[in-house]
Amino acid sequence: MIRTKRSRYLIRKKLTARMIFPGSVLIIYFVLFLLAQDRAMFALKASYGVFLRILVPLAFVFILMFLMNLFIKPPQIAGLIGKESGVSGVLFSIGAGIVSTGPIFAWYPLLEELKKRGARESLIAIFLNNRAVKPVLIPVMVSYFGWVYVALLTALTILGSLACGSIISIAQRK
Amino acid sequence: MKIAISAEGPDPEATVSHRLGTSPYLIIVDSETMSFEAIPSEAGASGQHAGMHLVSLAIAKEVDAVLTGYCSPIAENYLSAKGIRVVTDVTGTVSDAVERYIHSESQSLKMTASSPPTSKALLRKDTLSASLKKSGSQFKGFLPILIGVVLLIGLLSTFVSKDVLSFIFTGDAPLDTLLGACFGSIFTGNPINSYVIGGEMLGYGISLFAVTALMISWVTVGIAQLPAEIMAFGSRFALIRNITSFVLSIIIAFITVIILNLLGVRL
After folding, report:
1. How many domains does chain B have?
2. Which of A50, A73, A153 is nearest residue B150 as measured by Cβ atoms?
3. Which residues of B touch A26 (CB under 8 A)?
4. What is the ipTM of this complex?
5. Which of A28, A46, A110 sits opposite B56 (nearest CB)?
6. Which of the 8 DSSP states describes residue A56?
7. Residue B166 sits in the same domain as residue B102
8. Distance from CA of B213 to the nearest CA of A (A)
């Protein structure tokens, strides 16, 4: 891909911003090593324990992400939430929210466009709230909370998104 | 392969437009049949709206590449995120640009394959590698923050005692849940971080009410992205959705824990 100087600058800026948080934590570790090496080692060992715990679920996350990217394309998702029909529109919005990936704000322009083309606001709200349900991340969640909790929370989150969509719909009518 | 080119006119002999956002036409060429379709830019739209209209068009038409003179970094990010290749600094006529692009594509394919594979196999290999690349970049996107979170948990487990946590989360279910929902609304990012933080909080004896409210509000409520949401959908929609989601995160947390208790499930 041919990139302009400005786009290269913005990508560098984005990468730098992403590194601020982990970089700051590393600086704290560095200072801690200088001041209290034993406590720094203790903290590192605790982090290592957490890392080991999420390592296998993370591998599953990568595989699921790959399969999702292979079979589901963003234009298909955008097309689904544009559906205006009653129950099927709601079901499509739930499904689209669940399978959508990437940061939420990256979806705003597409959703804004769909809204202009007549997509109901309640469907957009249902889509946005269902982004809390992420099948690809379930292995990590299950490793901490177990299947029963994950299944229950997933079901309630979907029901919650419907409640949110209904409230938006009522507010729209007023 | 579908190629979209920003053009000054509606036919392949038109010159490539200098800028995608202000281009009067988007010409979509199918490289296999060499058929083309000229789509005029949205009448009356200007600036960013016109640009986003063309970006949406390119995505909706499922093109593989966009050729243009200049593409704004925002538009380029959207297109790249959808797996669409963006080629800038393109000049000359639309037909020349398409020919040059197809030629450069075939050259790069020849370099990676010793014997020419079938078009079906190429497509499959292409799709697999694009999906793998996208997954890799998504993974790389959240990994630095996740590593930061894991390292921070190590620090907190060393320096923040259970006394401090029990001072903040007193064990009073309604108050703890409210606090969890507030923390979740302030922090943002990939939900995986909220699972790790929530799971570790649970290990410190913080109630499942608070942890559940934190994990739900982490994604459904976004104070940090509220300005962007207001800009996209209007303040009425954004405020009602975020306030409703905040309240719902507390209600769902309560219902979840109550049902788990009724089922006799202990975490």
Report:
1. 2
2. A50
3. 151
4. 0.73
5. A110
6. H
7. no
8. 10
**Which is nearest to B221 in space by CA: B262, B260, B178, B255?**
B178
Asked if the Cβ–Cβ distance from B195 to A105 is below 8 Å, we say: no
Q: What is the pLDDT along chain B (267 residues), one digit of tens a residue?
A: 888 998 888 877 788 887 887 888 888 887 766 677 888 876 444 455 667 778 888 888 888 888 888 787 778 778 877 778 888 878 778 887 887 787 776 555 444 333 444 445 445 667 788 778 878 887 777 788 788 888 988 888 788 776 777 788 888 889 999 999 998 898 777 788 889 889 988 888 889 999 999 999 998 998 877 887 888 888 999 999 999 999 999 999 999 999 999 998 887
Contact B145 A125 (CB under 8 A): no
Boundary residue ending a domain (B81, B112, B143): B112
Residues of chain B found within 8 Å of residue A100, distances taken between Cβ atoms: none
Q: What dihedral angle (degrees, nearest 10) is formed by the CA atoms of B260, B261, B265, B267? A: 90
Of A47, A110, A143, the CB nearest to B153: A47
* Other CB atoms within 10 Å distance of the CB of residue A9: 12
| Residue B4: C-alpha distances to residues A29, A142, B28, B57 (Å) | 49, 43, 4, 9
We report the CATH number of the domain holding residue B63 as 3.30.420.130
B19 forms beta bridges with: B70
CB contact under 8 A, A145 and B267: yes
Residues B165, B256, single domain; the answer is: yes
Last residue within a domain, chosen from B74, B96, B112 = B112
The residue whose two tokens read 């499959």 is B124
